[in-house]
Specification:
Layout: H1 4-14, H2 50-56, H3 74-106, H4 110-116, H5 122-155, H6 162-171
Helix pairs in contact: 2-6, 3-5
């Protein structure tokens, strides 16, 4: 599950184009009858996913579960993006937890400080919590950069609309 902060950060970091419009595509089928005659049938349908499918292009390969994707193939790019997304989410969760710890220390009352740190050391604890949070935040930003690069490699540098990005995440189980 994506934390709201991760979702907001993803939108900012990825620079998602909110109003991208792409014409939808129609699926068509032709059939030939056996015997002396030739029967042709054409059918057009649009299940509402044409625009998203067209925008995702090769990333639709996420629908296929390739267990051993080759080098620079689309399944390999999808696997790299999925892993980098999960890593970014984990590092952001860690940064959020460390920030919460810092906030708890920083907002302690004098009575709480006296009870929790009877021998002193409160300032050192707050300082250590701030250093830990800043390190985790730096890690999260680095992981988001890797995720952004893997998404750019996956989409050949194209921005995805929020709907297409959501569809991709759904296909990848994110």
């Amino acid at each position: 599950m994506i934390k709201p902060l991760l979702a907001a950060t993803l939108c900012v970091v990825l620079g998602v184009a909110a109003n991208l419009t792409v014409p939808s595509i129609a699926e068509a089928g032709n059939g030939n009858g056996n015997g002396n005659g030739n029967g042709n049938g054409n059918a057009n349908s649009n299940n509402g996913r044409g625009q998203t499918a067209r925008e995702l292009r090769g990333a639709n390969a996420a629908r296929n579960n390739a267990s051993n994707p080759a080098g620079n193939s689309m399944p390999a790019k999808l696997a790299v993006y999925r892993q980098s997304y999960l890593q970014a989410a984990a590092t952001l969760d860690n940064a959020q937890a460390l920030y919460n710890q810092y906030q708890q220390l920083a907002t302690m009352t004098d009575a709480q400080i006296a009870a929790a740190f009877p021998s002193g050391g409160y300032e050192a604890a707050v300082s250590a919590a701030a250093v830990a949070y800043n390190g985790a935040l730096s890690d999260a930003q680095g992981a988001q950069g890797v995720m952004q690069q893997s998404l750019a490699a996956l989409t050949d540098g194209r921005d995805l609309s929020p709907a297409a990005l959501a569809e991709l995440h759904q296909m990848l189980g994110l």
